[in-house]
């Protein structure tokens, strides 16, 4: 799970703390309210007015409690949705990082293969150049041999002519 989700969860727990304190305070006030309502019934119109206001206050507090509960449920639902979306985001990020690493490995392999091909082509070119220069040297040697044979034949013919004259 991502770090961000745990931080959000801790903040959520911190937000719930004041609401818990408020609920315990309300529960502690319920006993004295009921006692006061009973005594107020005995004191007449002023007491009835106070009772109406107290009942109205209780009704408003109930509405507040219901609204608070609804908001807490809504917040909880949204927190779950956020956590789920964040989990999906983390999974997607992990998948993408894995794909990136695979592509990097593929690029490295292709680069190494390209370098090997380049070296192979350079070696082929060197061998072809050596073969060409060897062919040129061979042709030059054949021409030199042919010239030397021609000179030898001329010298041999001249030697034969001189021998015949003598």
Overall pLDDT: 85
Shape by Cα distribution: rod-shaped
**What is the radius of gyration computed over CA atoms, rounded to a whole number of angstroms?**
52 Å
| Helix count, DSSP H or I runs of 4 or more residues | 2
Low-confidence residue ranges: none
Order of helices and strands: HH
Helicity level = over 70%
Straight-line N-to-C gap = 117 Å
**Which band does the percent of strand residues land in?**
under 5%
* Class computed from helices, strands and strand pairing: mainly alpha
How is the biggest beta sheet arranged?
none
What does this structure look like?
The chain has 166 residues and is an all-alpha fold. It has helices at 3-40, 45-165. Helix 1 (3-40) runs antiparallel to helix 2. The mean pLDDT is 85.
Blueprint (SSEs and pairs):
Blueprint: H1 3-40, H2 45-165
Helix pairs in contact: 1-2
Task: Give me a quick take on this structure.
Helix content is 96%, strand content 0%. By secondary structure, it is an all-alpha fold. It has one domain (3-119).
Keywords:
single chain; 166 residues; mainly alpha; 2 helices; rod-shaped
């Amino acid at each position: 799970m991502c770090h961000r989700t745990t931080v959000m969860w801790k903040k959520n727990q911190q937000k719930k703390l004041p609401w818990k304190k408020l609920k315990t305070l309300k529960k502690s006030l319920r006993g004295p309210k009921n006692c006061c309502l009973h005594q107020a019934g005995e004191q007449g119109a002023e007491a009835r007015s106070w009772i109406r206001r107290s009942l109205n206050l209780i009704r408003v507090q109930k509405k507040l409690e219901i609204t608070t509960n609804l908001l807490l449920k809504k917040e909880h639902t949204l927190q779950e949705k956020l956590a789920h979306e964040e989990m999906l985001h983390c999974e997607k990020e992990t998948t993408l990082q894995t794909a990136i690493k695979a592509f990097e490995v593929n690029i490295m392999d292709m680069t190494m293969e390209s370098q090997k091909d380049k070296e192979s082509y350079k070696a082929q070119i060197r061998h072809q150049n050596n073969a060409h220069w060897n062919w040129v040297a061979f042709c030059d040697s054949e021409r030199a041999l042919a010239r030397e044979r021609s000179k030898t034949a001329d010298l041999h013919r001249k030697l034969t002519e001189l021998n015949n004259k003598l």
